[in-house]
UniProtKB/TrEMBL annotation:
Reactions that this protein is recorded to catalyse: pyruvate + acetyl-CoA + H2O = (3R)-citramalate + CoA + H(+)
EC number(s) on file: 2.3.3.21
Name of the protein this chain belongs to: Citramalate synthase
GO terms under biological process: isoleucine biosynthetic process; L-leucine biosynthetic process
Listed pathway(s): Amino-acid biosynthesis; L-isoleucine biosynthesis; 2-oxobutanoate from pyruvate: step 1/3
Top-level taxon: Bacteria
SUPFAM superfamilies named in the record: 2-isopropylmalate synthase LeuA, allosteric (dimerisation) domain, Aldolase
Molecular-function GO term, any one: (R)-citramalate synthase activity
Family of the protein in this entry: Belongs to the alpha-IPM synthase/homocitrate synthase family.
This protein's UniProt keywords: Amino-acid biosynthesis, Branched-chain amino acid biosynthesis, Isoleucine biosynthesis, Transferase
Entry-linked Gene3D superfamilies: 1.10.238.260, 3.30.160.270, Aldolase class I
Pfam families referenced in this protein's UniProt entry, alphabetically: HCS_D2 (PF22617), HMGL-like (PF00682), LeuA_dimer (PF08502)
Length: 530
């Protein structure tokens, strides 16, 4: 039986320190649920008490099915008891299932940064872990700068982690905080440490400053560590963290470990990677291992000929096992297996090869226009079900007009107002509504809702949760060079069910309308309105 490796994802905390990344509460909920869906053991949600976003997230966290939600924080302050420490209080009072507490493990930092006695630092670790363990049932110790500390003063570094272990820490996480340790050093040190703390209580948290975070994580596993921490797409401060998109398949396929992720869920890895990029409005890294668009791309010449005879010649794993696809420029079959897998997830069975081919062609045409469905599952489901003739036309837009008015009020205050006028045809009757809103998209949403809710009362329980815009680069393809706008809207109903839809147009308001139209249509179809 394969050894079990436990996966700890810190995208929502450590990944949020990436330059240019700013997660909303809606982002955090969606990402946590996606990680839970594929089978991640621990999802670190953030630091309660550190900022309003994390406070809100932990106040009403998502209901995870299998993963444990972890709150991050620091060990108690010098001179205070753990029970009276204001930093620990939000952690133990949060709705998290477990705690991860960071503390110093390098004597240099204790001397220079904290300016306290070494024994006090050890006591801070012991007291905090014992307190967290007693209040939450599971506490972990993040040994900050452990590898630097171990090389400088192994006795002190070991004293820190053994104190945490003896206090009841489930995991002692050895952190390569500045990313400067080499893989051979990591493996050697982890083996030495495992003589003092059992390997099934050791974890690794590697940063990517020498482009070796994944290698260091795998080296730690070879050395005996049984928890691995990382982020989706390697997000993280400076050069990032260990990339879960590479770690997971390498652990499972290359090294034969049990990660708790099934082969079926492993196929969702590529979708997870691209879903995160869509939520962050970032272009995916085409050359990312395993999940990149070009990870299994072959362009002409001898490679294509060899791949045609035996794919294993130039592919170290089957693309489908991680949810990716082989891409040969001249192939018209690219993406078929990917499409079938996504249809299977939705419980959609396409009747016949002709329908599958038509849907695949439609999907390619939409993607050529700028659509991306990895972050808009509701729009993808509608596209598939429309191909089968299952989705009614609930309404037709005749026209809309949106105006913005920026002016000074009588009180001398700057006021910006948006007004939308829409005319829609519902059940053979034309309805016109005018509404004001906080911005043009909100005004359009309010006016549309007013026009539709009389015929479809269920729409009054729907509200918009998040709105993202991405300007796609101009495409000189002979049909024009204007850039287009992609809008992704996340919606929710009264029960908390969420769905995302996408719209694309050269006009941002028109793209927003397309995404709104799909959002309304999806809710009506899901509610069984015919």
């Amino acid at each position: 039986m394969a050894d079990r490796i436990y996966l700890f994802d810190t995208t929502l905390r450590d990944g949020a320190q990436t330059t240019g990344v700013d997660f909303s509460v809606a982002d955090k909920i969606a990402i946590a649920e996606a990680l839970d869906e594929i089978g991640i053991d621990y999802v670190e949600g953030g630091w309660p008490g550190a900022n309003p976003t994390d406070d809100t997230f932990f106040t009403e966290p998502p209901k995870l099915k299998g993963a444990k939600l972890v709150a991050f924080g620091m060990t108690r302050r010098p001179g205070r008891s753990a029970e009276n420490d204001p930093g620990l209080a939000p952690l133990v009072n949060s709705k998290a299932n477990a705690l991860c507490l960071v503390g110093k493990a390098w004597d240099f930092h204790v001397d220079v940064a904290l300016e306290i006695e070494h024994d006090e630092n050890v006591a801070m670790i012991r007291d905090s872990i014992a307190f967290g363990h007693a209040r939450k049932g599971e506490a972990m110790y993040d040994a900050e700068h452990f590898f630097d500390g171990y090389k400088a003063n192994p006795q002190f570094a070991l004293k820190c982690i053994t104190a945490a272990y003896e206090a009841g820490a489930r995991w002692i996480v050895l952190c390569d905080t500045n990313g400067g340790t080499m893989p051979d050093e990591v493996e050697r040190i982890v083996r030495e440490v495992s003589k003092h703390v059992p390997g099934d209580h050791l974890g690794i948290h590697a940063h990517n400053d020498t482009e070796q975070a994944v290698a260091n994580s795998l080296a730690a596993v070879r050395g005996g560590a049984r928890q691995v921490q990382g982020t989706i797409n390697g997000l993280g401060e400076r050069c990032g963290n260990a990339n879960m998109m590479s770690l997971i398949p390498s652990l499972m396929i290359k090294m034969g470990f049990d990660t708790g992720i099934s082969p079926v869920n492993l196929k969702k890895l590529t979708h997870l990677s691209r879903m995160l990029d869509e939520r962050l409005n970032r272009a995916p890294n085409r050359h990312q291992a395993y999940v990149g668009e070009s990870a299994f791309a072959h362009k002409g010449g001898l490679h294509v000929s060899a791949v045609a005879k035996d794919p294993k010649t130039y592919e170290h794993v089957e693309p489908e096992c991680v949810g990716n696809r082989r891409h040969i420029v001249v192939s018209d079959q690219a993406g078929r297996s990917n499409l079938l897998a996504r249809l299977d997830d939705l419980g959609i069975e396409m009747p016949g090869e002709d329908k599958i081919r038509l849907l695949l062609d439609s999907l390619k045409q939409q993607e050529f226009k700028g659509y991306a469905y990895d972050g808009a599952e509701a729009s993808f489901e509608l596209l598939a079900r429309k191909a089968m003739g299952e989705v009614p036309v609930y309404f037709r837009l005749s026209r809309f007009r949106v105006m913005d008015d920026r002016r000074w009020s009588a009180r001398g205050e700057l006021v910006t107002e948006s007004e939308a006028t829409v005319t829609v045809k519902v059940k053979e009757e034309e309805v016109m509504r005018v509404a004001m809103g906080n911005g043009p998209v909100n005004a359009l949403d309010v006016a549309l809702r007013q026009a539709l809710v009389e015929c479809y009362p269920t729409l009054q329980h729907m509200h918009l949760v998040d709105y993202k815009v991405r300007i796609m680069p101009p495409r000189a393809d002979g049909t024009g060079t204007d850039a287009v706008t992609r809008v992704v809207i996340e919606s929710a109903d009264a029960e908390g069910h969420r769905w995302s839809t996408v719209g694309v147009s050269a006009n941002i308001i028109d793209a927003s309308y397309v995404a709104l139209r799909d959002a309304y249509t999806y809710m009506l179809y899901r509610e069984g309105v015919r």
